[in-house]
Every structure is written in structure tokens, then in C-alpha cells.
Write a structure and sequence with these properties.
The structure holds 2 protein chains of 2 kinds. Chain A is of the alpha/beta class. Chain A has 6 helices and 6 strands, in the order H-E-H-E-E-H-E-H-E-H-E-H. Chain A has a 6-stranded parallel sheet, with helices on both faces. The longest helix of chain A is centred in the N-terminal third of the chain and has 16 residues. Chain A is globular. By secondary structure, chain B is α/β, with parallel strands linked by helices. Chain B has 2 domains: about 120 residues, Rossmann fold (3-Layer(aba) Sandwich), CATH 3.40.50; about 90 residues, Regulator of K+ conductance, C-terminal domain (Alpha-Beta Plaits, 2-Layer Sandwich), CATH 3.30.70.1450. Chain B is about 35% helix and about 25% strand. Chain B is built from 8 helices and 11 strands. The N and C termini of chain B lie far apart (about 45 Å). Classes of the chains: A alpha/beta, B alpha/beta. Chains A and B meet through helix 4 and helix 5 of A and helix 4 and helix 5 of B.
């Protein structure tokens, strides 16, 4: 049942992804660079933001978007990345609080319609779901996955 | 009455001290272990070591009974999350956050923080408005800087000395709230005249601050 739900979700994503979108990715760490490379490879216009210029070394040859060096917690940086024009913003920095703040600023100040924040701590994630912030928690995803596969093995 | 302070350093130490002296029970959440040790030795306060933006820590600090939560870390994102968790999860009524980037003051208000204050903004205003004017002794921004209260010292030779309130024609948006003459404080009325040595309490909006000072001192500000 879990797998079934996942495929429908993926189908939805594919449908939305059919046209080219303008996407801002905050944080160019492991998750951020993976997303930036992938989305750019799919033909979307991507702007990736990171505090450290070295972080952009993880971008692959298929990445054809823009890079902005700066702290995304400052509105000035989001303006430089033209966040107000973005269809989607993905907050994928290392720190939960950076992502939670950037996601809310993107949504409320820059009026970005589709905002997703990566939140590692499950307790914090729960609180922010109630604030209508779409969150994704690698910790919960990995935890659920392991628990589910252990249950199946039994 | 319990007040939770999230942050570190001297700011937290002195804040807690002020709260204790006024009869509040401050609970401090600080990430630095050594500092926690020092704070708990110096203060009659509960000190918790850890990340105040984690719900577990706030709960342990007693956020449910707290009348206010103050977030004064040097990181805006942490201060915002502390305040939001406090009000959403623990229904703390008043949340106060320090903002380091002055632009975030507005943003924090929109995102539900009761009071957001920016030391950068306060200091910039102070310097901007006070620089070069020996007559202006004290300046206090009120309501997030929408109003300023200034103490102005009058001395012989200023155009306003010897004139009455009626004759002064203070610009709109400004008001002389009180005249301090020796030990006496009066709330001035139309016929009252200003004297050498008077100290005035000037209340004004930031826009009319300059014109009001010009009216009192005849100087470009």
C-alpha cells in the first residue's frame, strides 16, 4: 500500500514537472546539490543558494542554473536569487531552523506558491506541519523505511 | 512568574539578573556547557544546557507555564523558531526575539513573534539622530521606532529660549511633553515660556524629529 501511494505521488510530481519551472534551492549540501543537479538536468531553471562558494563544487556538469553566494536567512539574498519570481522553493540547508525560516519568508514575504522545507528533527517537523509549511524529514523517512522492512521480514 | 530566556553570554546573564530582581523566575536555555555552569553558579535560576529550538528542551524548561519567552541568540533563524514553537506548541502568550538583520524585524512580526527588536536598528537610529548634537541628551525609540522620546537641553542663544509654546509653532507629529526646570516638572500649556537651562521632553515621529529640533534650536539636523 505504501508503494502504491508513492507511485501516485511520483506521477503527480511528473505531471507538474512537465513544464519548465523556476526553482530556488537553498543549501548546496548533499541534498541540495542532488536536487539542483537533478532539476536542472530535467530542464528546469534552477538558482541554488549557499553561504560558502566551495559548496558549489558538488554541482555536476549537467547543472546549468545560477549560483548565489549568501545567507538565505537574509531577505537580501533571496531577492538576489529572484525568489519572488520562483514557482517553487526548496529549503534544503543543513540546519532545520534555516529551512523553517526561509520557507516561511518565501511563502509569506515573497509569495512563492510551492515551498518545501527539509526538517531533520521529527518533533519540530510536526509543529511546522500545523503552520501549513510542507516539510520533509529524512530522519522520519529513513526511520519509517527501516521499521517497515523489518515488519515485512517478520 | 516564569520567563524563559534562550541564548548565551553576558546578555542572558544580565537579563536574568534583572528578571530575578523584579521577582520573576527566569529559566535559561544555553547551548554552551561551560557558560551554563557559570550561569548556574552566579544566578539563582534554572539553567538548561541544549538547543532551545528543540521542543523537548522548551517543554523541560516549563514553557507551558511561562508568561513569556525571550530568544536572544545571535542567529535570527533560531530566535524565530524558538518563538514560534513557544507560541504554537506551548501557547506562550508573549514571545520576544532579537533580530540581527534589521530587515527581519518586519518579517518576524508577520510570522507571529509578539515583539522583534533589532539592536542594529536601535544603535543606527541613536547614532544618526544624536551625532553632533550636544543638546540632545537622551533618546528612546518607542513602538519599534515609530515614535521617539528625546531629552533636549536648552541654553541661552537658542531661538526657542524666551518664546512661549504658542509662539513656537512646533511641526505636526511633534510635542513638548514636559519641561523640567530644576526639580520641577510641568506639562506645558500655550502661554508657558521656555527658559535657559530647561530640559524638554520631546515626543515625535521619526519624520518630524528633524523639523522639531530645527524649531527648537534653529540648527540643521
Amino acid at each position: 500500500m505504501g508503494i502504491c501511494r508513492q507511485t501516485t505521488k511520483r506521477r503527480q510530481v511528473n505531471r507538474v514537472m512537465a513544464k519548465s519551472l523556476f526553482i530556488v534551492v537553498v543549501g548546496c549540501g548533499r541534498l541540495g546539490s542532488l536536487l539542483a543537479n537533478g532539476l536542472s538536468g530535467q530542464g528546469h531553471s534552477v538558482v541554488v543558494i549557499d553561504r560558502r562558494a566551495e559548496a558549489f563544487d558538488d554541482l555536476s556538469a549537467e547543472f546549468s542554473g545560477f549560483k548565489v553566494v549568501g545567507d538565505a536567512v537574509e531577505s537580501e539574498t533571496l531577492r538576489k536569487a529572484r525568489a519572488a519570481d520562483a514557482d517553487c522553493l526548496i529549503a534544503a540547508a543543513e540546519e532545520d531552523n534555516v529551512n523553517l525560516m526561509v520557507a516561511q519568508v518565501a511563502k509569506d514575504v515573497f509569495q512563492v506558491k510551492w515551498v518545501i522545507a527539509r526538517v531533520a528533527e521529527p518533533a519540530r517537523e510536526l509543529a511546522y506541519r500545523q503552520l501549513n509549511i510542507e516539510t520533509v524529514s529524512p530522519t522520519s523517512l529513513a526511520g519509517d523505511y527501516v521499521l517497515r522492512s523489518l515488519a515485512q521480514d517478520k | 512568574m516564569k520567563v524563559i530566556i534562550v541564548g548565551g553570554g553576558k546578555v542572558v546573564y544580565f537579563l536574568a539578573k534583572v528578571f530575578i530582581s523584579k521577582g520573576y523566575q527566569p529559566v535559561i536555555i544555553d547551548q554552551d556547557k561551560d557558560e551554563c555552569l557559570w550561569l548556574s553558579q552566579e544566578l539563582k535560576a534554572v539553567v538548561l544546557n541544549g538547543d532551545g529550538s528543540r521542543p523537548v528542551l522548551l517543554e523541560e524548561a516549563g514553557a507551558r507555564e511561562a508568561i513569556a519567552v525571550l530568544a536572544v541568540t545571535p542567529r535570527d533563524q533560531d530566535n524565530l523558531v524558538v518563538c514560534q514553537l513557544a507560541s504554537k506548541m506551548f501557547e506562550v502568550e508573549r514571545t520576544l526575539a532579537l533580530v540581527n538583520d534589521p530587515e527581519n524585524q518586519e518579517v518576524f512580526h508577520r510570522l507571529g513573534v509578539s515583539v522583534a527588536f533589532s539592536t542594529t536598528h536601535i544603535m543606527a537610529t541613536l547614532i544618526e539622530q544624536q551625532a553632533g548634537l550636544e543638546e540632545v541628551v537622551n533618546l528612546l525609540p518607542v513602538a519599534q521606532g515609530k515614535m521617539t522620546v528625546t531629552e533636549v537641553l536648552l541654553h541661552q542663544g537658542l531661538p526657542s529660549v524666551g518664546r512661549s509654546m504658542q509662539e513656537l509653532d512646533m511641526p505636526s507629529g511633534s510635542l513638548i511633553g514636559a519641561i523640567i526646570r530644576g526639580d520641577k516638572v510641568t506639562v506645558p500649556r500655550g502661554p508657558d515660556r521656555l527658559q535657559d537651562g530647561d530640559r524638554l521632553l520631546l515626543i515625535s515621529t521619526p519624520e518630524s524629529y528633524g523639523p522639531a529640533l530645527r524649531c527648537l534650536m534653529g540648527k540643521e539636523v
